[in-house]
Amino acid sequence: MRWDELKQNVGDFIHGYFVSEYERRLREQFVDLNDLFMLQCFMELVGLPNPASIYLLDVYPYFLEEFHTWHRRMGMDRSPIGSMPCC
Amino acid sequence: MRELLRKRILFFGGKGGVGKTTCASAMALAAAKEGKRVLLVSTDPAHSTSDIFEKRFDRDEREVYPGLMGIELDASLEARRYVDKAKAEITRMFSHAVAKEAERQIDLASAMPGVEEVALFDRMSDLIIDRFDAYDLLIFDTAPTGHTLRLLRMPELVSSWIAALSRRRRALLSLNQDIDRVRLAPEAIDPDEDPILRTLDQRREKLEQVRARLMQHNFTGFVLVVIPERLPIEETARAAEILRESNVNVCGIVVNRVLPDDLEGGFYQARRKQEQVYVDEIRRRFSAYPLTWIPQFETDVYGLASLERVRSGLMR
Fold first, then answer.
1. Among A36, B20, B114, B286, which residue's beta carbon has the most beta carbons within 10 A?
2. Minimal Cβ distance to B182: which of A22, A40, A44
3. Which domain holds residue B136?
């Protein structure tokens, strides 16, 4: 029993040791790309016109969660627009 | 102009007040008289089609003459309708809490400048795609030039924007899948299942379809209406140039309100002499396009009887 647990922990450690750095880089890249994507979807926020604004109306609900993570990462504690009151 | 009856989609454009609506209506009448099923769509905010036909036009198709259906589109009404449709869709698909929050974002977005234009264009796209088979000919009486040119370039602009968004979204999702591969607990969304990507792609497909129809020279054409005066000539020349650059087929120019030959009196003769300068200029500058000349009538074009005179002028 103890031996199985130890084996599991050592296995996880080795996996994490070799893979976590790689995963971290991927995640950073993901976050950067996502920031750009969100910016393109919410251009109104920075005062730029968004030509596709009306075409995005029915995807807004899908964005609620991502939008929250995004504005937190952008250093805005609260939702920057009252109309997306995720927090 | 007679050969233009063989087209499937015609746009009438020109400077404000030159008689776009009259010419578009006369063309629609001509096609209906040939036994074609015609839809006349007025997008001009001035909406004078109902005055010309002396029939009420509506947001939905209604018969204004045997074989001729008419619609008057109102941009702000279309915008409201579009937004309501999006809201209804959201209430259907999401929980009450999400729908309520999203609705506020939608209200903000729908107050943005340009939304009315996009909504109007969206309705025109629906007509071009869904009603194309129901009619032999769709005729659009457009708003003054600048507005119309923007409208025609809209699919290009918006669809490339959406394409960029969808490309980015796809890259994001595939990166997410890469992360999953090295993780022990997968959580990524399959790109084929992503609702955001699916909505974006549907939008783009529709825009591309409209764009393809507008660029089809054999069945879509743009008719410019001009009068023999300085400013309309300049504006028409610019419009023809821009349309050509955007690969829209300018298939004819109607020169409206040309003074007749048989006028007596010093004032008319002087007026006509000045007009002749512009007439010559039109012949010279627009020699690449088929020109049709419509005389100035002694009465306004109002009602079917006078519209009939314009129709026979166009078909001559």
1. B20
2. A22
3. 2-77+115-265+291-315
Contacts of B243 by beta carbon, 8 Å cutoff, 6+ apart: B149, B152, B222, B249, B250
What letters, b where the CB count within 10 A reaches 16 and e where it falls short, cover B31-59? bbbeebebbbbbbbeeebbebbbebebee
Distance CA B85, CA B251 (A): 36
Stated pTM of the model: 0.81
Count of A–B CB contacts within 8 Å? Answer: 113
Is A48 part of the contact surface with chain B (CB cutoff 8 Å)? no
Tell me the percentage of chain B whose pLDDT exceeds 70.
Answer: 98
The alpha carbon of residue B98 is apart from the nearest alpha carbon of chain A, in Å, by 6
Whether residue B276 is predicted with pLDDT greater than 60 in this model: the reply is yes
Measured CA distances, B175 to A30, B14, B150 (Å): 6, 50, 37
Render pLDDT for B32-84 as a digit per residue (tens, 0 to 9): 999 999 999 998 777 789 889 988 898 899 999 999 999 999 988 988 888 88
Q: What is the domain extent for residue A36?
A: 2-73
- CATH number, residue B22: 3.40.50.300
**Predicted ipTM?**
0.73
The number of distinct structural domains making up chain A is: 1
Count Cα atoms within 13 angstroms, Cβ side, for B206: 19
What one-character DSSP code corresponds to residue A16? H
Structural contact between residues B61 and B39, judged by C-beta atoms closer than 8 angstroms? yes
Q: How many domains does chain B have?
A: 1
H runs (alpha helix) in chain B: 20-33, 49-53, 75-93, 96-110, 115-130, 145-182, 195-215, 230-245, 266-285, 304-315
Q: Is the C-alpha dihedral spanning B117, B120, B126, B127 positive or negative?
A: negative
